[in-house]
Amino acid sequence: MTYEEINEMMQEIGMPFAYHHFAEGESPKPPFVIFLSPGEDTFGADNLMYHSFKQLDVELYTDEKSPDAESRVEEVLTQHNIYYTKTETYIESEQLYEVLFEMEV
Questions:
Q1: Nearest 10 degrees: CA dihedral of 57, 98, 91, 63?
Q2: Can you tell me the distance from the alpha carbon of 55 to that of 43, in angstroms, rounded to the nearest whole number?
Q3: Residue closest to 15 by CA, chosen among 65, 57, 71
Q4: pLDDT averaged over the chain?
Q5: Is the pTM of this model over 0.85?
Q6: What are the domain boundaries of the chain?
Q7: Which residues pair with 12 in a beta bridge?
Q8: In CATH, what is the architecture of 3-40+53-104?
Q9: Pairing mode, if any, of strands 40-45 and 48-62?
Q10: What is the pLDDT of residues 28-70, one digit of tens each?
Q11: Which of 2, 31, 35, 46 has the fewest CB atoms in 10 Å of its CB?
């Protein structure tokens, strides 16, 4: 999946989004989404790389628990046949919930 395809998928979620972070002072009111690719897993043999799987993290931020916002992200990932794992945490310093969707594309 290319950056352009991932960007289009983020648009389908229908919330403000950015790669990695919003510029200082430009963070929108929650809910919003951040996506990033923190690395790659590769498959190779005989000193050749045969395939690369990009890690993709989609982070949903809300100011209160929002099953509707989570469901919207899940629906878009499912429509694109993407398998993900999901975890949640509360960031006390920001007073935001973060729901993290981790996957390989």
A1: 140
A2: 14
A3: 71
A4: 94
A5: yes
A6: 3-40+53-104
A7: none
A8: 2-Layer Sandwich (3.30)
A9: antiparallel
A10: 999 999 999 998 888 888 888 888 888 999 999 999 999 999 9
A11: 46
